[in-house]
Amino acid sequence: MTRDLTGDFQTQRQAADQMPYPTLTVRRDRLARLARMTKHHQLEIIRAIQTDFGQRSDVEIRMAEINAVLHAIRHTRLHLWHWMRPWSVSMPWRLTPARARIAPQPLGIVGVISPWNYPWSLALMPIVDAFAAGNVVMLKPSEHSPATSNLLQRLVAQYFTLEEFKVVEGGVEVARRFSELPFDHLVFTGSTAVGRQVAQAAAVNLTPVTLELGGKSPAIVAGDADFDKAATDIIFGKGMNGGQTCIAPDYVLVESRHISAVVKALSEAIQRQRPDDHAATHAINAAHQQRLDAMLQEAHDHGCRIIDHGPHAPALVIDPHRELQVMREEIFGRCLPVIGVSDMSAAIRYVNARPHPLALYAFTHDKGLQQQLLQTTRSGALVSNATLLHHAVPSLPFGGVGESGMGAYHGRHGFERFSHLRGIFYQAKRSASRMLYPPYRRWLIKLLGLG
């Protein structure tokens, strides 16, 4: 496998060297083939993902896996011609009439290590941006979603040459060796713990990395919020994909005097959105299910009030102790702690006392509180009166900060992430700037304010 990885990498390196700046036509063609691969094999994609999860809503697969990729490709192909154009930058008066520009150029080979929770879209979304920037790509999909990973390998081989796009299947050892390859950029989506290992492996080759991690994304419900609407939005975010979403609400903060009303609204929202098991998504495997069951059991054993409407619906855990597993780890499942605080200042202090989250959800129409959250907290994204929907905006950067990630992509931000923004300087035929060369004249030193 090591020889295969190295050989495939060298094949792509030669291809990248032979075509260091693919034209707009080449890039748009690669994106078009990526779209055809996704659009023409929708039923196979749905079957593969359902096989990996045991059960997952086909509506959610179409919405979060298939349409997400197609919309990203459509947006990118529409704007790519503009993103590729070099642009002029201002020139200090001392150097005029010289000119300066910035020209985005491909990096070369981009490696992508993708997760199991959205095994199609989170594998291909960074590749959309990498192709737009003119790179070739190697992908290592998750071993925890083997049916989808195998489908990716088979379809990519049909639609792309090895020189353009290669899928590498395998387990932990393959992922480790993959992250040690001297890519020009490496993207990893997954847990913070594994992200550290990937960054360490990449550092040996000084490979720049984009780490899309996670963390405990809070939802703050202020007293002025419409509790029913807030609960509906929170349960939508928590219920999607069985809570196995990096930007899912991980816990809810609400003023203690409103906690009963918010819990009631959340419980009713669960019953409306997840009335039975038909549209639910199961845990990816038995080990993950056991971990989630252990979280709930520990909370129950410590006297927490738990409102549970079914084995695959969001389960509310009221005021859990902060030392419980459900409060120490990213849940990545159906458990949803609801925590009472004295006021919104206390909620902000609670959030700031913990690692910066990938998303911070604020349910309030109070402009002052929204501004306070913007200025006094840090998170990958700040979202008001909604959950998850910011991920569907292709012109917004998507990424974390601190333990929730490093770097961002999507749309133009992804194009620039996977490009080298090369500085270009054009000296004029007649330029006074040569007077800056030695020997240094006293009048020039005075003019420049150097003495």
From TrEMBL:
Keywords carried by this UniProt record: NAD, Oxidoreductase
Active-site residues, record numbering mapped to chain: E212, C246
Aldehyde dehydrogenase domain mapped to chain residues: 13-421
Protein name as annotated: Aldehyde dehydrogenase
Organism: Halomonas campaniensis
Family: Belongs to the aldehyde dehydrogenase family.
Pfam families: Aldedh (PF00171)
InterPro entries (UniProt xref): Ald_DH/histidinol_DH (IPR016161), Ald_DH_C (IPR016163), Ald_DH_CS_GLU (IPR029510), Ald_DH_N (IPR016162), Aldehyde_DH_dom (IPR015590), Aldehyde_DH_NAD(P) (IPR012394)
Domain of life: Bacteria
One Gene Ontology term of the molecular function aspect: aldehyde dehydrogenase (NAD+) activity
Cellular component per GO, a single term: cytoplasm
UniProt-listed PROSITE patterns: ALDEHYDE_DEHYDR_GLU
Keyword Thylakoid found: no
Keyword NAD listed: yes
GO biological process: aldehyde metabolic process
